[in-house]
Each structure stands twice: as structure tokens, then as C-alpha cells.
Amino acid sequence: MWLFNSSIGRKVVMSVTGIALILFLTFHMSMNVVALFSANAYNTICELLGANWYAVVATLGLAALAVLHILYAFILTIQNRKARGGSRYAVTDKPAKVEWASQNMLVLGLIVVVGLGLHLYNFWAKMMLVELVGCEEMAATAANGAYWIQQTFACPGYVAAYVVWLVALWFHLTHGFWSALQTLGWNGKTWFCRWKVIGNAYVTLLILGFIAVLVAGACGFIAPECCGHCCEGAKEACEAVKEAAACCAQ
Description:
The protein contains 11 helices and no strands. It has helices at 2-5, 7-37, 39-49, 53-84, 100-103, 105-124, 128-133, 145-153, 156-183, 189-218, 232-249. The longest helix is centred in the N-terminal third of the chain and has 32 residues, at 53-84.
């Protein structure tokens, strides 16, 4: 099938999966921004998603898209290296019109993948995975996303790692956005420049949304109210967040 056997087909797969992942990131950022206004509302969304069948199916679909995107990125990189042959070792000047992100997409992609693994460890493994495996010890905080935001970003090391990840993601997406549209045929002279501007603005707002939540979590501004409706486990989680923030402040 040409989608998998030809260079153009592989680029189409990369473009479609990339656009789908950008749409997911848009949803994810929009969901996270809710935490800036109401931690309890954010936790309600986390509980609504949780380990429900539709969320699990969506997670599996996203995992498949991510694996395809990463796999084809490596295939295309290897293919391009083989096509250049020994000429890739020659010392040449960098083309003036080629963006830095375009020349370093593999490195940026690797940083994004490592950051994704860190993010899955800090959030998905402690929330959805806990519900899926039925871990009773962590069940009280499985849907308490505000707690995990506070606990994670109370650590300066995680804050620094996420900033590096998000900056790499910005470079990766700003190039990938217009590159995907170009591959899909939207590369007219007029709209090519417009898509680059639109893509840069869109991705910048996307990343700023994530950074806003990161900063709010690091500053201790995101914490669910420990009211009478909270279970004991949730109350303990709130107290643990306060203690962690106080410890890092010292």
C-alpha cells in the first residue's frame, strides 16, 4: 500500500498522525487550564475521564497514533540519510532558508518522547493506571489531578524538566504544523506563509497554556478545597500538598 511503502505515503501518515496529536494536545491544554479557575472542576473532569471505557479506548487510540508518528519519523530519517549517502559527512554551509527546527527534528523528537515518558510516569501512571490495576493504596488520589499537579511541580527539578520539554515541543510543533499542511497539498505561495504564521501563533498559545498551569502548580495556586464532601483520602492528599509546598519553600 502506497501509504506505507512510498516516501510520500509515509509523509502523509506522519502529517495526519501529527495533526491528530496536535488536536489532542489542544484538548489536553484546555482541560488543564480549567485547573487555573477551579481545582475542583478540574478534578471533576479527571473523574469523568478516569478509567472509563471511552477514556481507555481514546488512550489506546492516542498511543497508536503516537507510536505510528514516532516509528515513521525514524523510518523517514533513516531513509533520508541513506538517500544522501556519504554526502552527509561533507562540511557544508547550512541553507539560509532552512529552519533550525527542521534541521534538528530528530533531536527535538527524542526530547519530546523522553518528556512524554516523564509525563506518563507523573500523571497517567498515578491516575488512570492506578484505577485500571485497582490499586487501593492510591485509589483516593487517582482522580485528584490538582493534587498531582501540586505535588509534581513542587519539585524544582520537575519544573525545569517540563520547561525544557515544552520548549522542545514548541520547536517541534511549529515546524511540524506547516510541514504537515504542505505535505497534504496546502502549499500555495499565499497560504504557505499564512499557515506558518497561524501555526506559530496557535502552537505558542498552546504551549503558553501548559506553562501557565505549570507555573500555577509550582506557586501553589492549584489545590482542591478540602470540604465536607471530600473523602478522608482526598483530605490527606490536600494536606500532603501543603506540606510538600512548605518543604520546598524552605
